[in-house]
Amino acid sequence: MRTTTALRLATALAVAAALAGCTSGGGTPAPAAASAPDRHGCLTEEQAAEGSVTVDGLAPVQAYFRDSDTGGAKTAVVLSHQNGGSLCDWIPYLDAFTGAGYAVLPYAANGNVSDNIQQVAGHLKTRGIAALVLVGASKGGTGSIVAGSLPDLAVPPAAVVSLSSAESFGGDSASNAVKRLTVPVLFAAEAGDQPFADYAHGLHDTAAAKGKQLKIYPGSDHGVPLLPDGAMPDVLAFLARTAPPKR
Protein backbone atom coordinates (compact mmCIF):
# COMPACT_ATOMS: atom_id res chain seq x y z
CA MET A 1 0.00 0.00 0.00
CA ARG A 2 2.79 2.43 0.93
CA THR A 3 4.55 1.64 -2.36
CA THR A 4 1.39 2.39 -4.40
CA THR A 5 0.84 5.69 -2.57
CA ALA A 6 4.46 6.71 -3.14
CA LEU A 7 4.19 5.97 -6.88
CA ARG A 8 1.03 8.03 -7.18
CA LEU A 9 2.66 10.94 -5.39
CA ALA A 10 5.73 10.78 -7.64
CA THR A 11 3.56 10.73 -10.77
CA ALA A 12 1.55 13.74 -9.56
CA LEU A 13 4.71 15.69 -8.86
CA ALA A 14 6.11 14.87 -12.32
CA VAL A 15 2.92 16.04 -14.04
CA ALA A 16 2.92 19.27 -12.02
CA ALA A 17 6.54 19.93 -12.96
CA ALA A 18 5.79 19.36 -16.65
CA LEU A 19 2.86 21.75 -16.56
CA ALA A 20 4.95 24.37 -14.80
CA GLY A 21 7.54 24.13 -17.54
CA CYS A 22 4.87 24.95 -20.15
CA THR A 23 3.80 28.19 -18.46
CA SER A 24 5.43 31.45 -17.57
CA GLY A 25 4.66 34.04 -14.90
CA GLY A 26 1.16 33.56 -13.53
CA GLY A 27 0.33 30.46 -15.54
CA THR A 28 0.29 32.07 -19.00
CA PRO A 29 1.42 29.62 -21.74
CA ALA A 30 4.88 30.41 -23.05
CA PRO A 31 4.74 32.02 -26.54
CA ALA A 32 5.59 29.72 -29.45
CA ALA A 33 8.88 30.39 -31.15
CA ALA A 34 8.46 32.40 -34.37
CA SER A 35 9.02 30.30 -37.48
CA ALA A 36 12.00 31.24 -39.59
CA PRO A 37 11.27 32.99 -42.93
CA ASP A 38 11.08 30.60 -45.88
CA ARG A 39 14.41 30.39 -47.73
CA HIS A 40 12.88 28.35 -50.59
CA GLY A 41 16.11 26.39 -50.91
CA CYS A 42 17.99 29.28 -52.52
CA LEU A 43 17.78 32.45 -50.42
CA THR A 44 20.26 33.47 -47.76
CA GLU A 45 18.94 33.95 -44.23
CA GLU A 46 19.26 37.70 -44.69
CA GLN A 47 17.39 37.68 -48.01
CA ALA A 48 14.60 35.55 -46.54
CA ALA A 49 14.28 37.76 -43.48
CA GLU A 50 14.04 40.89 -45.61
CA GLY A 51 11.88 39.68 -48.47
CA SER A 52 10.09 36.33 -48.04
CA VAL A 53 6.33 36.89 -47.99
CA THR A 54 3.12 34.88 -48.09
CA VAL A 55 0.51 36.49 -50.30
CA ASP A 56 -2.90 35.53 -48.95
CA GLY A 57 -5.76 34.43 -51.16
CA LEU A 58 -7.82 31.37 -52.01
CA ALA A 59 -4.50 29.62 -52.58
CA PRO A 60 -1.68 31.36 -50.64
CA VAL A 61 1.33 32.23 -52.78
CA GLN A 62 4.91 32.12 -51.45
CA ALA A 63 7.03 34.93 -52.87
CA TYR A 64 10.22 36.92 -52.48
CA PHE A 65 10.27 40.71 -52.80
CA ARG A 66 13.33 42.87 -53.35
CA ASP A 67 13.42 46.60 -54.02
CA SER A 68 15.59 48.19 -56.67
CA ASP A 69 19.23 48.88 -55.82
CA THR A 70 18.46 52.56 -55.31
CA GLY A 71 15.26 51.88 -53.35
CA GLY A 72 11.77 53.29 -53.72
CA ALA A 73 10.99 51.55 -57.02
CA LYS A 74 7.47 52.11 -58.36
CA THR A 75 7.71 49.49 -61.13
CA ALA A 76 8.01 45.82 -60.21
CA VAL A 77 8.98 42.84 -62.36
CA VAL A 78 6.77 39.85 -61.50
CA LEU A 79 8.57 36.64 -62.47
CA SER A 80 6.51 33.50 -63.15
CA HIS A 81 8.43 30.23 -63.45
CA GLN A 82 7.98 27.33 -65.87
CA ASN A 83 6.36 23.96 -65.17
CA GLY A 84 8.53 21.99 -62.77
CA GLY A 85 10.47 25.11 -61.80
CA SER A 86 10.41 27.38 -58.78
CA LEU A 87 11.05 30.98 -57.80
CA CYS A 88 14.72 29.95 -57.39
CA ASP A 89 15.00 29.75 -61.20
CA TRP A 90 15.02 33.56 -61.29
CA ILE A 91 17.44 34.31 -58.45
CA PRO A 92 20.61 34.53 -60.63
CA TYR A 93 18.96 37.26 -62.74
CA LEU A 94 17.40 39.48 -60.09
CA ASP A 95 20.47 41.72 -59.81
CA ALA A 96 20.14 42.70 -63.47
CA PHE A 97 16.57 43.91 -62.92
CA THR A 98 17.15 45.64 -59.58
CA GLY A 99 20.28 47.27 -60.99
CA ALA A 100 18.16 48.68 -63.81
CA GLY A 101 15.81 50.31 -61.32
CA TYR A 102 13.04 47.72 -60.93
CA ALA A 103 11.72 45.99 -57.84
CA VAL A 104 11.36 42.23 -58.33
CA LEU A 105 8.96 39.55 -57.11
CA PRO A 106 9.51 35.93 -58.13
CA TYR A 107 6.97 33.55 -56.61
CA ALA A 108 6.07 29.87 -56.37
CA ALA A 109 3.14 29.17 -58.67
CA ASN A 110 0.09 27.70 -56.97
CA GLY A 111 -2.69 27.02 -59.46
CA ASN A 112 -3.29 29.09 -62.58
CA VAL A 113 -0.48 31.58 -63.15
CA SER A 114 -2.83 34.40 -64.12
CA ASP A 115 -4.67 33.97 -60.80
CA ASN A 116 -1.37 34.07 -58.91
CA ILE A 117 -0.38 37.26 -60.70
CA GLN A 118 -3.66 38.89 -59.70
CA GLN A 119 -2.89 38.02 -56.07
CA VAL A 120 0.66 39.34 -56.08
CA ALA A 121 -0.47 42.48 -57.93
CA GLY A 122 -2.73 43.27 -54.99
CA HIS A 123 0.17 42.72 -52.60
CA LEU A 124 2.49 44.93 -54.63
CA LYS A 125 -0.08 47.70 -54.63
CA THR A 126 0.15 47.81 -50.83
CA ARG A 127 3.91 48.35 -51.24
CA GLY A 128 3.34 51.42 -53.38
CA ILE A 129 4.08 49.77 -56.72
CA ALA A 130 2.40 51.68 -59.56
CA ALA A 131 3.25 49.55 -62.64
CA LEU A 132 4.08 45.93 -63.39
CA VAL A 133 6.31 44.17 -65.86
CA LEU A 134 5.18 40.56 -66.26
CA VAL A 135 8.00 38.16 -67.17
CA GLY A 136 7.19 34.49 -67.53
CA ALA A 137 8.79 31.26 -68.74
CA SER A 138 6.76 28.59 -70.53
CA LYS A 139 3.51 28.23 -68.53
CA GLY A 140 4.60 31.35 -66.64
CA GLY A 141 4.72 33.23 -69.93
CA THR A 142 1.28 31.93 -70.90
CA GLY A 143 -0.18 33.17 -67.62
CA SER A 144 1.68 36.47 -67.89
CA ILE A 145 0.09 37.14 -71.27
CA VAL A 146 -3.34 36.37 -69.83
CA ALA A 147 -2.80 38.53 -66.74
CA GLY A 148 -1.45 41.36 -68.89
CA SER A 149 -4.70 41.40 -70.86
CA LEU A 150 -6.93 41.75 -67.78
CA PRO A 151 -8.62 45.15 -67.43
CA ASP A 152 -8.93 44.97 -63.64
CA LEU A 153 -5.44 44.00 -62.51
CA ALA A 154 -4.78 45.76 -59.16
CA VAL A 155 -1.63 47.36 -60.59
CA PRO A 156 -1.62 48.12 -64.35
CA PRO A 157 0.81 46.16 -66.53
CA ALA A 158 3.35 48.19 -68.48
CA ALA A 159 4.88 45.35 -70.53
CA VAL A 160 5.01 41.56 -70.86
CA VAL A 161 7.98 39.31 -71.63
CA SER A 162 7.17 35.78 -72.80
CA LEU A 163 9.98 33.20 -72.78
CA SER A 164 9.04 29.97 -74.60
CA SER A 165 5.34 30.37 -73.84
CA ALA A 166 2.80 27.71 -74.67
CA GLU A 167 -0.40 28.70 -76.46
CA SER A 168 -2.33 27.47 -73.43
CA PHE A 169 -1.66 25.86 -70.07
CA GLY A 170 -4.21 24.84 -67.46
CA GLY A 171 -6.90 27.49 -67.38
CA ASP A 172 -4.76 30.10 -69.16
CA SER A 173 -5.07 30.65 -72.92
CA ALA A 174 -2.45 32.94 -74.41
CA SER A 175 -3.92 32.41 -77.89
CA ASN A 176 -7.07 34.23 -76.86
CA ALA A 177 -5.45 36.75 -74.53
CA VAL A 178 -2.98 38.15 -77.09
CA LYS A 179 -5.92 39.42 -79.11
CA ARG A 180 -6.84 41.66 -76.15
CA LEU A 181 -3.32 42.50 -74.99
CA THR A 182 -2.51 46.16 -75.63
CA VAL A 183 0.75 46.68 -73.69
CA PRO A 184 4.11 46.04 -75.38
CA VAL A 185 5.08 42.37 -75.41
CA LEU A 186 8.32 40.54 -76.25
CA PHE A 187 8.00 36.97 -77.49
CA ALA A 188 11.22 34.94 -77.28
CA ALA A 189 12.14 31.31 -77.95
CA GLU A 190 15.01 29.22 -79.30
CA ALA A 191 14.75 27.86 -82.83
CA GLY A 192 15.32 24.23 -81.85
CA ASP A 193 12.75 24.27 -79.06
CA GLN A 194 9.70 23.06 -80.91
CA PRO A 195 6.78 23.58 -80.91
CA PHE A 196 7.51 26.63 -78.71
CA ALA A 197 9.41 28.52 -81.39
CA ASP A 198 6.39 28.12 -83.65
CA TYR A 199 4.14 29.22 -80.77
CA ALA A 200 6.22 32.39 -80.40
CA HIS A 201 5.76 33.18 -84.10
CA GLY A 202 2.03 32.51 -83.95
CA LEU A 203 1.41 34.49 -80.77
CA HIS A 204 3.43 37.40 -82.13
CA ASP A 205 1.52 37.42 -85.40
CA THR A 206 -1.85 37.31 -83.58
CA ALA A 207 -1.03 39.86 -80.88
CA ALA A 208 -2.99 43.10 -80.99
CA ALA A 209 -0.29 45.10 -79.19
CA LYS A 210 1.47 47.67 -81.36
CA GLY A 211 4.66 47.44 -79.34
CA LYS A 212 5.21 43.74 -79.97
CA GLN A 213 8.59 42.18 -80.73
CA LEU A 214 9.77 38.68 -81.67
CA LYS A 215 13.21 37.24 -80.89
CA ILE A 216 14.25 33.75 -81.99
CA TYR A 217 17.66 32.61 -80.75
CA PRO A 218 19.82 29.70 -81.88
CA GLY A 219 19.72 26.61 -79.68
CA SER A 220 17.06 24.43 -78.11
CA ASP A 221 16.83 25.63 -74.52
CA HIS A 222 13.46 26.33 -72.96
CA GLY A 223 12.22 29.06 -70.67
CA VAL A 224 14.54 30.73 -68.14
CA PRO A 225 17.78 29.41 -69.78
CA LEU A 226 17.12 31.81 -72.66
CA LEU A 227 18.34 34.61 -70.40
CA PRO A 228 21.98 33.46 -70.15
CA ASP A 229 21.82 32.28 -73.78
CA GLY A 230 21.59 35.89 -74.91
CA ALA A 231 18.08 37.08 -74.13
CA MET A 232 18.88 39.04 -70.95
CA PRO A 233 20.34 42.12 -72.69
CA ASP A 234 17.43 42.12 -75.14
CA VAL A 235 14.90 41.89 -72.30
CA LEU A 236 16.49 44.83 -70.48
CA ALA A 237 16.67 46.89 -73.67
CA PHE A 238 13.03 46.11 -74.45
CA LEU A 239 11.96 47.18 -70.95
CA ALA A 240 14.07 50.33 -71.00
CA ARG A 241 12.30 51.33 -74.20
CA THR A 242 8.73 50.28 -73.39
CA ALA A 243 8.46 50.26 -69.57
CA PRO A 244 11.21 52.33 -67.96
CA PRO A 245 11.11 52.14 -64.16
CA LYS A 246 8.89 54.66 -62.38
CA ARG A 247 10.32 56.44 -59.34
List keywords for this structure.
36% helix, two-stranded antiparallel sheet, alpha/beta, 247 residues, 6-stranded parallel β-sheet
Give the strand order of the largest sheet, numbering strands 1, 2, ... along the chain.
Answer: 6-5-7-8-11-12
- Rough shape? globular
Largest pleated sheet:
6 strands, parallel
Q: Care to count the β-strands?
A: 12
Protein structure class = alpha/beta
Round the mean pLDDT to the nearest integer and report it.
87
Low confidence ranges: 1-26
Strand content: 15-25%
How many angstroms does the end-to-end distance come to? 83 Å
Number of helices: 8
Radius of gyration: 24 Å
Indicate the multimeric state: single chain
**SSE ordering:** HEEHEEEHEHEHEEEHEHEH
Please estimate the helix content.
25-40%
